[in-house]
Amino acid sequence: MLYRPDSESARAVLQYAQEFKRRTGKDVELIDVDSKEGLRLLDLYDIMQHPTILAVASDGQLLNTWRGEPLPLIDDVNGYLVEQ
Fold it and tell me: What is the pTM assigned to this prediction?
């Protein structure tokens, strides 16, 4: 999940990641949009809005994105992890 730690949505992102872990046992990778990796992903997937959740296949193919708030249902995101 790409987000800005000092933004208004940061608390919601952290709560989402915590709830995702509690319900699925899986971690959400949190990436600061201003980090080197964050900037690379913003450019690669043409992301203009955050927070953004990316479902990416192991070969790098973008499967789905969820941009902005409200954040998607945990089951919707987890469905992409189960398929992998």
Answer: 0.91
Is the Cβ–Cβ distance between 57 and 73 less than 8 Å?
Answer: no
* Spatial separation of the C-alpha atoms in residues 76 and 78, rounded to whole Å: 6
Give pLDDT tens digits for 59-68. Answer: 889 999 999 9
3-state secondary structure the chain: CEECCCCCCHHHHHHHHHHHHHHHCCCCCCEECCCHHHHHHHHHCCCCCCCEEEEECCCCCEEEEEECCCCCCHHHHHHHHHHC
Say what the pLDDT of residue 82 is. Answer: 66
